[in-house]
Structures are given as C-alpha cells and as structure tokens.
Amino acid sequence: MNWYEMLKEYFPEEELKTKQHLDTLLAEKDYYYLDCSEQHVLLYAEFPSFIFVDYMYVRGSKRHRGIGKQLIHKLKKKGKTIILEAEPQDPNDSDTSKRLRFYSREAFNKADCIQYTKHSLITGEKVNLDILYWDSSGEENDVSIYMKMIQMYEEVHTFKEFELYNDYHPKAHDAIHFAKTGQDLLS
C-alpha cells in the first residue's frame, strides 16, 4: 500500500491535501519531508526555527507499540519547536481524546489564544482545529506560535494552490486568528 492511501484510510477528506499537492511540495521544496514505512506516514516541513507536522499516521494495527513516540522523539532531537494541527476533543470520537492524551504525554501545549479554521479546497468544508506545540527552547508563547503558523500556512497550505486546485485558500490572517482579546492580532 502506498503512503497516500494510508493517509486516506484515516484522515477525513476535508483535512487532506491532494496527492499532487504533497508530491509537488516534496519535489520542489527542500523543507518538506516524507518519512514512511508499512507502519506509519509522517509528512513535515522543517523551517530554520520550527517543524510543522502536516500529517502523522500510525496504522491502527500497529498502534500502542511506541511508533508515534519514536517519530515525535526523532523530530524533538532536531532541537526545534514542533507545531501541529489537531481536531479538538469530541465526546463522540474517542480518537480525538486518545490523540490529545498522546500529545499531552509528549509535553505538547495547546495554543489557547489561536483560533484556526482550515478550509478544504477539495470539499469546500471548514474545520476548526487546535494548534498544539512542543517548545524546545522554553521561550515560545501563543504570539510566537501564531507567527510561525502564518509562515507555515503561506509556505505549505497555500503552496501553488491555484495551479493545484484552481482555487485559493483564505489569506493566512483570515484563517488564523489571535483570540486573546477576541480580536485578530493585527487589529
């Protein structure tokens, strides 16, 4: 089975990029990486000061064997802040609770002041996601994570979007809001 088919088994369509989008990032951007086996898929962007985990999947039958922990620790060894998007806890979906407990055990924090709505150019759906981060330096805060999310959004999520989807995502500041005071950071 190929790595994209593995992602499609787990991630809802509205959270996925197309295979062409991912292949184009892998081929054209020296900061975008794929790590995969029959047991897992990890796609991430490594910037000078942080890593963005775009997708991490461990095959269901291989879970609870430490594979996810090994993948996260491999990234932690790079000594950079790690950022990822996660579905908020949903009482009707036990996977969300398990996933959030995993990241909590791995010392990830939730960026409480950031509101992020991911817009799918495939389905047109909008999904609210939490931003989680592991702070390598002890100096990160929601403002610094917000700025990193803006950079990631512009360099990963919207990369060649019109060429690949014949459409555009909302501008970064329209999709990602700093909500400490209920207003956008730039207001």
UniProtKB/TrEMBL annotation:
SUPFAM superfamilies: Acyl-CoA N-acyltransferases (Nat)
Gene Ontology terms for molecular function: acyltransferase activity, transferring groups other than amino-acyl groups
Protein name: Putative acetyltransferase YjbC
InterPro entries: Acyl_CoA_acyltransferase (IPR016181), GNAT_dom (IPR000182)
Keywords: Transferase
Top-level taxonomic group: Bacteria
Residue span, N-acetyltransferase domain: 1-183
Native species: Alkalibacillus haloalkaliphilus
Entry annotated with the keyword Transferase: yes
PROSITE patterns (alphabetical): GNAT
